[in-house]
Every structure is written in structure tokens, then in C-alpha cells.
Amino acid sequence: MINVAIEAAREAGKFLKYSVGKVRTIEVKEGEERNLVSEIDKGSEERIISLIKRHYPTHGILAEESGGSHPDADYKWIIDPLDGTTNFLHGLPVFSVTIGIEHRGEIIAGVVYDPNQDVLYTAEKGSGAYMNGRRMKVSATGKLIDSLLMTGFPYDIAGNPEHAVEHFVDFLMEAGGIRRFGSAAIDLCYVAAGRLDGFWEVNLNPWDMAAGILLVTEAGGRVSGFDGARLNLYGKKLVASNGMIHDAMVSVLAKQRRGETGGIK
Ligand code: IPD
Ligand code: CA
Ligand code: CA
Q1: Which CATH class is domain 2-135?
Q2: Which ligand has the minimum distance to the alpha carbon of residue 208?
Q3: The whole model's pTM is what?
Q4: Given the CA of residue 95, which atom of ligand 1 is nearest to it?
């Protein structure tokens, strides 16, 4: 199955890279004025799904643009055909294709392909995480003040969901540095690769994180909800880290609940 995911991600990624600057129709997704989609997101998804269906016609699919099929199947392919649509539409070369494979509720394989760097990230449950075939390991940073963190802003940031703005301010005050690149899947690969020490974001969808969370855990890191408890893939909130700074990140996110937030000194 992972070989099919790799083939699909590579083929879709090549299509995305070739399509930069050639978009014909940009639509706004229903009720979300910042959430854009073009025929390229859809074309990428069609390529991925047709390959999967050719090999595994009875498997379930959960894909961002076309939704789901076979919801009760044991295996579910969770697909984001273009993670980083805003970047893509601006010609900013930070976007990816990401495919996770879930078996009875557990992610067993994940693939992220970054076509701009021609880098393939892969993981299978229990077998480690790899970047172009080289084993990855999370960083060893132990303190938040030494850490480089990544986050993302949801399309509905104007509504400040889950106090996203205050969390950002709180991390700005406590981390060594913060970045926002615009592809959650790549962000998670960078945590797995030890380039970043941690990542958090609210309002993520399962297709944004399915592959990336396995890459992080297989590289020795930790993933959870904002409260530090077991991650729910469908629960919208994710903290991913090298493990060493995880409790500190969860504690920053808890400030809001303790009423200590918005710490601009
Ligand atoms: C988005 C990207 C971005 C994150 C957003 C996602 P899309 O996915 O992953 O980094 O901040 O929350 O929705 O819409 O480009 O597939
Ligand atoms: Ca996405
Ligand atoms: Ca997408």
C-alpha cells in the first residue's frame, strides 16, 4: 500500500509543480472567505484517487475536495491533494501532497511529497520515518526558550477559534522563534526531521495531519491534543513535538484556560 501512496503522491506532486501559474478558476469555499480551491486541487485529487481505486477498489477514501467513500471499510486513505493552496496560488513554492492510510482507526502509513524540493517523506507504523530514504530523528532541544516552533492560522482566524491569537502571542513570548510556512503536512515533516522542535495548530482537518503525525511519532516525537491527552485525528487540535518540549507546549496552551494569557510584557 505504501508504494501505491508513494506513486500517487509523486504523480500528483509533479502535476502541482507543473501547474504553478497555470490556474484557470479559483473558487472560494462555502462560508470561508480565505479558503480557496482551484481545478488544480481537484485534478490532483482525481489522479490520486484513480490510482488508489485501481489497486484497492474496496478501500475507504477520505479526501479534502471530494469527501468520502466506503466509510465502513477497514482501510481508509486520507488525502490532501494540495496542502498549501494559498502558497500554490501565489507561486510560493511551499506546498505538498499528503496521504495517510488508516486501518481500523490507526494510522499505519503516511507519505508526504514536497515537489518543489523533490523530497519524499515516508513512514510505516513501527518501521521509522524517512526523508528520501534516510532515517529521520526529532531534535533534542529540551527548553522552550531554545526551540524553533511552527504554527498555522486557520482560515477562520478572524473568529479567533480556541483563542488562536492569544496562543500565538503566548508562544511568541516563550519560544526561541516561531515560523508559519503554510503547509501543515510539511510543518510536521520538519518536526520529524529535527528542523523544528514543535508545532501546534487549531482547526486542522484529518487530511492535514494523518501522514504527518505518523512521521513525527516514528521519528521519536510526540503528538497530542492541546490538553496533552491522546490525539484525536478528527478533533481539530494538534500539538506535535520532539517530545522533550511537549509538556511545556501544552502548559503554554493551558494558560488560556488558567486566565493568564495574552502575555505581552
Ligand atoms: C492548509 C495548510 C495550512 C494550515 C491550514 C490548512 P490547505 O491546508 O495546511 O498550513 O495553516 O490550516 O487548512 O487548505 O492548503 O490544504
Ligand atoms: Ca490542508
Ligand atoms: Ca488542500
Answers
A1: alpha beta
A2: 2
A3: 0.97
A4: 15
